[in-house]
Amino acid sequence: MKFTMVFSNKFDTAIACFSLMLATGITLAADPLKPVAQQRFFIDEVQELYGLDEESAIQRLGNEQVASEKAAIIESFNLTGYAGSWFDPESKKLVVALSSPSHSVAVSALDAKIPVSRLIEATLRLWAASSCAPSAL
Q1: Alpha carbon distance 85, 9 (integer Å)
Q2: Of the N and C termini of the chain, which has fewer Cβ atoms inside 10 Å?
């Protein structure tokens, strides 16, 4: 049986490739034989910085590495409206800020969070501060 997938654009292709990488354990790390989470220096630094035990520090480093790999993929999309990304330690996910919702499906497909309420609040604050906002705000 032959299985063929046809993708309509580069976002679909990249998402499929990244999903395959996650499923098979392929990494974008500079030294895949020694991930950051296994390097003593980084473990010690994260333990000290965040007050974590060794196991929690290793887990956080692993989560941050996955988020970093996702961020690199998202940045390679050159999305219109991409406003940056960061690691959220509470959700253990990458958070991607978009100035418009047009690419939210592509970002969500990589299991990244989109801070919609923050986006709306920031947009309203900027708009209220601009010269074209009604005086009622």
Answers
A1: 23
A2: N
| Tokens (6 digits) for 108 | 């969500």
Phi, psi (deg, nearest 5) at residue 13:
-65, -45
In eight-state DSSP terms, residue 3 is -
**Dihedral sign (CA 34, 113, 84, 101):** positive
What's at 65, amino acid-wise? Q
Crossing angle of helices 10-24 and 54-76, rounded to 10°: 160
Task: Name the stretches of the chain with pLDDT < 70.
Answer: 1-38, 116-124, 131-137
User: What type of residue sits at position 52?
Assistant: L
pLDDT of res. 94: 93
Contact at 8 Å (CB) between 96 and 113?
Answer: yes
Cα separation, 127 vs 44, whole angstroms? 44
Listed residue (62, 110, 54) closest to 89, CA to CA: 62
